[in-house]
Structure to design on (190 residues):
């Protein structure tokens, strides 16, 4: 996202300015750098033409307006959603002149998990959708009964995944199935 890049740039810039200011402050406090007393600087500025109130008033108002506009633009970008094209936003299943049918990735994951939980030998299932277009990609974690045959469970998962392909009107999908036998803590990827 572009906004993440902007935020990183702004944070890096502010961090760099803070680091330079801290370093200069330490050098000035140690006496390593020569610096006029602030009162002498203010006296010179008061005599200068740039110190007129009309000039600084306009600069302050202009700077405030620019900061306010930047703040409003940033707040608007945070509130308004954008489609990145290949992201995990709402997926339109059917579009016609009368409307469109959509599905959210979370709802899709719950439906597939419920379907996979009906497979013989599976006690629980969790599904995470990673990508919906151009080819659906998901991770399914299946908790198995102690005596379940992994090959049989793997073969039985073909039907729920085939139903998912038909629902999404996709020719195929990529699914990582992770088996978690209930007696063991670590999952195995097949």
């Amino acid at each position: 996202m572009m906004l993440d890049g902007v935020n990183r740039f702004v944070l890096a810039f502010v961090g760099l300015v803070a680091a330079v200011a801290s370093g200069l402050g330490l050098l000035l406090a140690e006496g390593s750098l020569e610096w006029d007393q602030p009162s002498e600087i203010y006296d010179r500025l008061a005599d200068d033409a740039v110190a007129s109130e009309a000039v600084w008033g306009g600069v302050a108002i202009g700077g405030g307006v620019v900061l306010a506009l930047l703040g409003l633009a940033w707040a608007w970008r945070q509130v308004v959603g954008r489609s990145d094209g290949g992201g995990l936003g709402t997926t339109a299943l059917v579009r016609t002149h009368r409307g469109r049918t959509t599905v959210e990735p979370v709802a899709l994951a719950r439906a597939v998990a419920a379907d996979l939980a009906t497979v013989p030998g599976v006690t629980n299932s969790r599904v995470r959708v990673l990508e919906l277009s151009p080819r659906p990609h998901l991770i399914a974690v299946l908790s198995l009964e102690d005596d379940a045959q992994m090959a049989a469970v793997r073969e039985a998962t073909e039907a729920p995944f085939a139903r998912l392909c038909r629902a999404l009107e996709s020719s195929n999908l990529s699914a990582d199935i992770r088996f978690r036998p209930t007696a063991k803590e670590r999952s195995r990827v097949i």
About this structure: The chain has two domains: 2-79, 91-189. Residues 2-30 form the longest helix (29 residues). The beta strands are 91-96, 99-103, 122-131, 137-144, 174-181, 188-189.
